[in-house]
Specification:
The protein has about 230 residues and is an alpha/beta fold. About 50% of the residues lie in helices and about 15% in strands.
Length: about 230
């Protein structure tokens, strides 16, 4: 399976990408993780990317595409992959399609778009808290600590990252709605889009995604998914 996972920040993309990774045995590929790893390893592409990141600028599309193309050449991506956080614009989607067709003659199988109301996104993300000592993360809405403001693991103080403040979350939503949401129309016109209600318990969202993937799952994967729903 060749999948793209779309959704605003806080929609649950990471959780669902991990579920799909474990179900189908294909890697979750995050453009953000690729960039950070390349910079840390000081690879050729990482050194180039760092020049932009150090100035607080967006990394050019062609550089990100090169990183993704390089990652898709790894052996674990031969069976398929889940792209998480890319593409973020129609221009990136067109470049991705061209790259995939050139690489293997095959494009994306399905785009899964998680739909969550903006106010719920604000509630979820602004509820995140991080430990100052060990970095453990909590959520006042879904995974609160046992004691208010105190880490369960090490007793450290919990704080709200600037990225998780309400003002920052609303700004990120504005960027998503302006830049990434047009991808829904783009992929919808190509009959590649499955819009999934992202509200409810993780298991409920899992079931909706698995139903959308029914024609792409192997017999063993369908059986594995069924066992997961029964548990």
């Amino acid at each position: 399976m060749r999948l793209v996972l779309l959704g605003p920040p806080g929609a649950g993309k990471g959780t669902q990408a991990r579920m799909l990774r474990d179900l189908a045995g294909i890697p979750q590929i995050s453009s953000g993780d690729l960039l950070r790893a390349a910079v840390h390893e000081r690879s050729r592409l990482g050194v180039e990317a760092a020049k932009y990141m150090d100035r607080g600028e967006l990394v050019p599309d062609d550089l990100v595409l090169n990183l993704i193309d390089e990652r898709l050449g790894a052996s674990d991506a031969k069976k398929g992959f889940i792209l998480d956080g890319f593409p973020r614009s129609v221009a990136q989607a067109e470049a991705l399609t061209a790259m995939l067709l050139k690489r293997s003659g095959k494009g994306i199988d399905l785009v899964i778009a998680l739909s969550v109301p903006d106010e719920e996104i604000v509630r979820r993300v602004s509820g995140r808290r991080t430990c100052t000592q060990c970095g453990a993360m909590y959520n006042l809405v879904s995974e609160p600590p046992q004691r208010v403001g105190v880490c369960d693991k090490c007793g450290g103080e919990l704080y709200q990252r600037e990225d998780d403040s309400e003002a920052t979350v609303r700004n990120r939503l504005n960027v998503y709605n302006a830049t990434t949401r047009p991808l829904l129309e783009y992929y919808g016109a190509r009959k590649l889009l499955a819009q999934i209600d992202g509200m409810g318990r993780p298991g409920e969202v899992d079931s909706r995604i698995i139903a959308a993937l029914d024609g792409l799952l192997s017999k063993s994967e369908r059986a594995k998914a069924s066992r997961g729903r029964d548990n």
